[in-house]
Amino acid sequence: MFEFYSAGRLIFGSGSFSLTGHIAQELGDTALIVLGGTAMRNLGVVDRLQQLLDQNSVRYTFYEGIHQEPTVGLVDAGVNLAIANRCNMVIAVGGGSVLDTGKAIAGVVTNGGSVFDYLEGVGNGKKFVRPALPYIAIPTTAGTGSEVTKNAVISSDESSVNKFKVSIRSPKLIPTVALIDPELTVSLPPEPTAYSGLDALTQLIEPYVSKSANPITDALAIYGIKLIGESLLAAYHNGADLIAREKMAIAAVLSGLALANAGLGAVHALARPLGAYYHIPHGLACAILLPYIMELNLDANVTKYAEIGRALTGKMHYVHDAVAAVHGLQFVRTLCDELNIPRNFKSYAINPADIPFIIQGAQGASLRDNPRPLTNDDVTNLFQKLI
After folding, report:
1. Helix or strand or coil: residue 69?
2. Mean of pLDDT values over 91-117
3. What angle do CA 143, 164, 3 make, to 5 degrees?
4. Distance between CA atoms of 237 and 339, rounded to whole angstroms?
5. Nearest to 297 by CA among 202, 216, 193
6. Is residue 365 over pLDDT 80?
C-alpha cells in the first residue's frame, strides 16, 4: 500500500508564466509575493508579474530578500506581513529557499502561531489542521522540486544558540498550483545550475533506491535520471539552451514528486547538519556526498543501481548489472568533476570533533530509507576522508 501526493494543479511549459495573473484571480484578490534577491527584478520578471496581476485586478504586497534558506524569523516576519495586509494567497517566485518560505507562510497564516511550533523534532508538536492559504509556486531553478512537495526546510536563526535545519511537513502545505516555466531558468548562472541540478539528481536517485519506493515513484525517478544525464552539462555550459533547460525543469519536478512520495536517503540526511552547522549550500553538500554514498550503497541494490547507470549513460543495456551499476557511479563522478564540484569538504574546515554532532543531526527518516543501514562507524570513516 502506498500514497501519492502532488500539487493540486501543475502547469508546465515555456511561456506559461503569462498565465499567472489569471490563475491568481481564481484564488483570491490580495497576494503576498515572496521573492529572493534582485535577480528577478533586474530581469524584468517582477515588472511582468505586476502587469499580469494588475490586469486581473489582484492586489499585492512584496516580501523580498529571501536570499538564504528560510529561518524561523524570516517565515514569521512574512506571516505577520501577510496578515497585516490581509493577503488571501501567496505567490512565490524563486529557488527552493523562496518556495519553501512561501509554503511555510501560507501554512502558518491560517494555522496560527510561529513556524517553530510545527518543526519536526525541535518544535512544539503543533500540527497543521487548517488548509493553507492558496499558494502558487513558480520555480526559477531546476533543482529542489519544492513546487510539488508537502514539506519545507526551516533553519534556526543566526542568533539562536541551538542550531538546526529541519522540516515542517503536511499534505496541507502542498502548493495549490505549481507553475513551471523553463524560460525563467535560462538566466541562472553556471554554478547554481550545477548545484541545483545535482540536487535534483540526488532527489531522483535516492527515492529510486529508497526502502519506501513504489512503482509510480520508480517510473518518475528513472525517467528524470535519464533527462539529467542528457541535459545537465548542456544547461551548465549554455544557459540559453532551452531544450536542456526544459529537460532539467521536468527532471526537477519529477525529483520533487519522487522525494515527496518515496523519501530520500543518506545524502540528504548528512547534508542537513552540514547546512545547519557549516552553512554549506544544500545543493553543493548533496553533490559532494552523492558519489560516496552511491559507492557505499551499491551492493545493497545492484539491480536498481544498474538501471541508474543505464539511464544516465544511455548504454549498458546488455551488460551485467554489476558492471552497469559501476558505470553509473563513474558517470556521476565524472559529471561532478565536469561541473567543478569539489571532491571533499576540506575548504569548510570541519572539525573532526564535530563528526558525532553530524551523525546525530542526520538521524531521521532519510537515513532510515537508505538502502543500506549506515552505522556511526560508516559515517565516521566517510567523513574522515571528506574533511
Report:
1. coil
2. 97
3. 50
4. 9
5. 202
6. no
For residue 103, give Cα distances in angstroms to 231, 271, 336. Answer: 29, 21, 31
Angle at 6 between CA 210 and CA 171, to 5 degrees: 90
What stretch of H or E contains 63?
strand 59-63
- Banded pLDDT at 366 (limits 50, 70, 90): confident
Helices (H), 238-364: 242-262, 266-278, 282-297, 302-313, 321-338, 355-361
How does DSSP assign 124-183, residue by residue?
A: ------SPPPPEEEEESSSS--GGG-SEEEEE--TT-SS--EEEEE-GGGS-SEEEE-GG
Q: What is the pLDDT of residues 22-57, one digit of tens each?
A: 999 999 999 999 999 888 999 999 999 999 999 999
Q: b/e string for 77-92 if b means 16 or more Cβ within 10 A?
A: ebbebbeeeebbbbbb
Strands 151-155 and 165-169, sheet pairing: antiparallel
CB atoms within 10 A of CB 274: 27
pTM, 2 dp: 0.94
Grid cell in block for residue 99: 518556495
Which three cell numbers mark 294? 552511491
C-alpha cell at 258: 519522487
Please tell me the total number of residues recorded for the chain in this structure.
Answer: 387
Q: At what angle do helices 96-111 and 72-84 cross, to 10 degrees?
A: 60
Distances (CA, A) of 167 to 53, 115, 121: 31, 10, 9
- What is the Cα–Cα distance from 94 to 37, expressed in whole angstroms? 9
Indicate the pairing of strand 30-35 with strand 135-139: unpaired
DSSP readout, 348-371? GT--GGGHHHHHHHT-SHHHHHSS
Portion of the chain with pLDDT greater than 70, in percent: 100
Q: Cell 556511526, residue?
A: 376
